[in-house]
Amino acid sequence: MKRKKYLYGTAVVLALIALLLLPISAGARHSWGNYHWARATNPFTIKLGDNVSGLWDGMLGIASSDWSQSNVLDTTVVAGGTTGSTCAPTSGRAEVCSADYGNTGWLGLAQIWITNGSHIAQGVVKNNDFYFGNSSYQYNNTAEMQHVICQEVGHIFGLDHQSESGASLNTCMDYYHNTSDSDTLSTHPNQHDYNQLAKIYKHKDRLSTIGAAPNAGAPAGWANADVHAQENWGELVSTSANGRESLYVLDFGGGYRIFTFVTWVPGLDN
């Protein structure tokens, strides 16, 4: 399938494009715009709804434990609020899903619902078993699975990638491809990820989007938008130089947006 290319002319999105295309080094800022969960205190806890199965269950537990090493946030795995195939969002938390989503061209994706211009109100993570359950897919191994789920959960907190070169910085927030079960590079966060989270969440908010956050005033269709298929992700904002990652935005106006961060299958013309 072919990815569509769009023009998106607003100043806000052009500024976001410029930010995302800046070269990233191990010492550089790698936040996803200025998007963050609103809260009045640190540390805070994000619930990760468990809608995964098989090997993903243990991997979600590892990712949750890894990200909870942060000084500013904790995560806890709770009963899923949806199903793997549906992967509908739940206000105030993240739902993590796995299912056979078909020959979509993507391995995994993270989606965040933005309110008030910058506050994350809910999020979902999807892991595509069409490829990870397929022995002909060359990166079908447990290390690559851990890399993908760790990275997509990291996006839910507002993190971007540390590097787009394909080299391993030994963080799940890079573009490295794991070649076997024993190739465990880049399967966990590193200290720079924790440092970046501390920067993102240094300031406090006067309101909270964590828990059963109300969506009063949100445009119709925003909270429960059907963004499962690529044609519903909105405008293509950016694609990495190596084609592995893309960012889409669906803008409802008034500071309400849905962002979709996609990890594509290597070597496919998506």
Question: What attributes does this structure have?
Answer:
globular, alpha/beta, nine-stranded mixed beta sheet, disordered N terminus, 270 residues, Collagenase (Catalytic Domain), 19% helix, 9 strands
Give a written overview of the molecule.
This protein is an alpha/beta fold and 270 residues long. It has one domain: Collagenase (Catalytic Domain), CATH 3.40.390. The protein is built from five helices and nine strands; from the N terminus they run αββαββββαααβββ. Strand 7 and strand 8 form a beta hairpin.
The CATH superfamily turns out to be Collagenase (Catalytic Domain)
Number of E-type strands: 9
Spans of at least 5 consecutive residues whose pLDDT stays below 50 are 1-28
Largest sheet: 9 strands, mixed
The chain-level mean pLDDT equals: 87
The tally of domains stands at 1
Q: What percentage of amino acids are in beta strands?
A: 15-25%
Alpha carbon gap, first and last residue: 5 Å
SSE order, one letter for each helix or strand: HEEHEEEEHHHEEE
